[in-house]
Amino acid sequence: MRGGRKNLKRAVEEEFLTLQKGQSIMQVLDLRGSNIIQVRDAKGETSLAIFPAKFQKSMWIKTGNFVVVDDSGREEATESGRKVGCVVTQVLYYDQVRVLQKSPEWPEIFKSTAVESSKQDNTQSHNSQMDENEDSIDDDGLPPLEANTNRLNPFQGESETESDSETDS
């Protein structure tokens, strides 16, 4: 897939997805840092996968999302003692997950979790919108913001120059 982000975005826009040999759908369990994520496959086994740098500023994932992973080198990695055995090839978004849930390629283990997670996301977003409306005056218990002392305020700089020029005249 050459061509940078243009092709990445084009691939995301396609709703229908076909899995090639060695690819499988996995669910993100944990973000480990340094582009390493923990994923669960259709058998319920967990493993570590690398999230390539080409996705860094164009796609984001969080716990519970679904990804397409190339796990063809998984067995070789475990035999050689490496911890990371999979590579993320595509991030699945909500519309793609809905289409895939109806297809036979979708693993049975994820059918209940996808429905539950989408319901939780909907209820959480609805509850957060209600909370924002009710608590619009409250600052969520955060301390007030402090001024950045590393930058000069442009309004202060102008008023000082004007007062200096007036005193000189």
From TrEMBL:
SUPFAM superfamilies, A to Z: Nucleic acid-binding proteins
Keywords linked to the UniProt accession: Initiation factor, Protein biosynthesis, RNA-binding
Region listing for Disordered, in residue ranges: 114-169
Positions with biased composition (Polar residues): 114-130
Residues in S1-like domain copies: 12-84
Gene3D superfamilies: Nucleic acid-binding proteins
InterPro entries: EIF1AD, NA-bd_OB-fold, RNA-binding_domain_S1_IF1, TIF_eIF-1A
Name of the protein this chain belongs to: S1-like domain-containing protein
GO molecular function: RNA binding; translation initiation factor activity
One Gene Ontology cellular component: nucleus
Keyword check for RNA-binding: yes
Record field: compositional bias (Acidic residues): 131-141, 159-169
Entries under SMART domains matching the protein: eIF1a
Keyword RNA-binding: yes
Species, as recorded: Solanum verrucosum
Pfam name, any one: eIF-1a
Entry similarity comment: Belongs to the EIF1AD family.
